[in-house]
Amino acid sequence: MKLPLPIRTKRLVIRQFLVKDLPAYLEFMLDLDSTKYLAFTDEQKTEQGATDLFNFVTSSYNSDNIVHAYAIALAESDEYIGSCGFSPYENKIYECYYSINSPYRRKGYAVEAMTALFQALSALGKIAEIRAYSSEENLPSLNLAQKLGMKYQGKAVHAHSGLAGVVYSLEFN
Fold first, then answer.
1. Sequence-ordered list of residues with C-beta below 8 angstroms from that of 95, at least 6 positions apart, any chain
2. 24: which of 11, 68, 79, 80 fits an S-S bond (Cβ 3.0–4.6 Å)?
């Protein structure tokens, strides 16, 4: 699936990761409080592991197996402030993910970025449903899913990671 990038909003740009994003990406990945609810391995939460993951994602952009993980940057400065993306879950169901670096939280950036991403995905016409899996304790993530119009579907175990939590979903027409 080819996503038309960059995606622009009033304040943000969703684009492929660039080498200049690595320091801010590492800032997030090495912050144990930021990653405590996320399905990263302990190795991926180290400088080397996070750098390897970053390089894996960026190298995938030129392959047939694209990892749909993208930078969220400020439109006026192109400064990296977080990331978002999606991946196939089953059939025409995809899951989404998002993160905002600590200094940029509670400013509406996640809602703005994910709304734009959902609009772009809906326009492709290849996705029937998008899901957000989350720990029940990750209240900011649960609140974001609700703000995006996603509906609570109950407790679930993620089929790929095996992590238990809750799932929210949004159907695309």
1. 86, 87, 89, 130, 131, 132, 133
2. 80
Residue 19: in which H helix or E strand, if any? none
For residue 48 the two structure tokens come to: 């080397």
CA–CA separation, 59 and 65 (whole Å): 10
pLDDT tens digit sequence for 90-107: 989 999 999 999 999 999
Residues contacting residue 36 through CB under 8 Å, at least 6 positions apart:
none
Q: Which of 168, 170, 105, 114 is nearest to 142 (CA)?
A: 168
- Report field, pTM of the whole predicted structure over 0.85: yes
Q: Are β-strands 129-134 and 151-157 bridged in parallel, bridged antiparallel, or unpaired? A: unpaired
Hey, is 105 helix, strand or coil? coil
Tell me which residue of 116, 127, 114 sits closest to 84, measured CA to CA. Answer: 114
